[in-house]
Amino acid sequence: MTGFNHVLVGLTIAVVTREPILAPVAALLSHFVLDALPHFGDDRIILWEREFMRLIVLDAVLCFLALGLGLLLFPQLWWLLMLCAFAATLPDWLWPLHLRYNLQHPFFDIHAKIQWGERPWGLWVEIPFACVLVALLVGMSGQIK
């Protein structure tokens, strides 16, 4: 799953639970649930080359825009939103260390196996998923004080 959708789920968990201990843990666990769903990935894109870096930059921009939306809609939860967004993306922050230093740990094996559904067509799963989450967050902003 792209970082953008991980952040959106982390924000949603923060808003729905508002629990300072439960929310970050749930956001972290949500990462693995989302990665078990079919999602975008393309083996033809070579790590660290231009197209890969463009995707990473685009995803990062979308992540910060999502976080900004969350902060705009729920400013009273700013710290929990930031914590849950980070927790929801944390496992993907570890991948560059694994790739750069060839770290061997069962975590990376398990995480790789969970991502069975990385396919180019997975973008058509991620886009509607993101739209639903954005609509949900915007809708909740009018109801939750």
Q: Main beta sheet, described?
A: 2 strands, parallel
Structural class: mainly alpha
Number of domain units = 1
Give the CA-CA distance, first to last residue.
30 Å
Question: What are the low-pLDDT stretches, counting only 5+ consecutive residues below 50?
Answer: none
* Physical arrangement of strands within the biggest beta sheet: 1-2
Please summarize what this structure is:
The chain has 145 residues and is mainly α. The protein has helices at residues 3-17, 22-35, 50-73, 78-93, 95-101, 106-114, 123-141; strands spanning 39-40, 118-119.
Task: Explain this structure.
The protein has 145 residues and is an all-alpha fold. It has one domain (3-141). Helix content is 72%, strand content 3%. It has 7 helices and 2 strands, in the order ααβααααβα. A two-stranded parallel ribbon has the order 1-2. The longest helix has 24 residues, at 50-73. It is globular, with a radius of gyration of 15 Å. It starts with a helix and ends with a helix.
List keywords for this structure.
mainly alpha; 7 helices
List strands and helices in order, with pairings:
Layout: H1 3-17, H2 22-35, E1 39-40, H3 50-73, H4 78-93, H5 95-101, H6 106-114, E2 118-119, H7 123-141
Parallel strand pairs: 1-2
Helix pairs in contact: 1-2, 1-3, 1-4, 1-7, 2-4
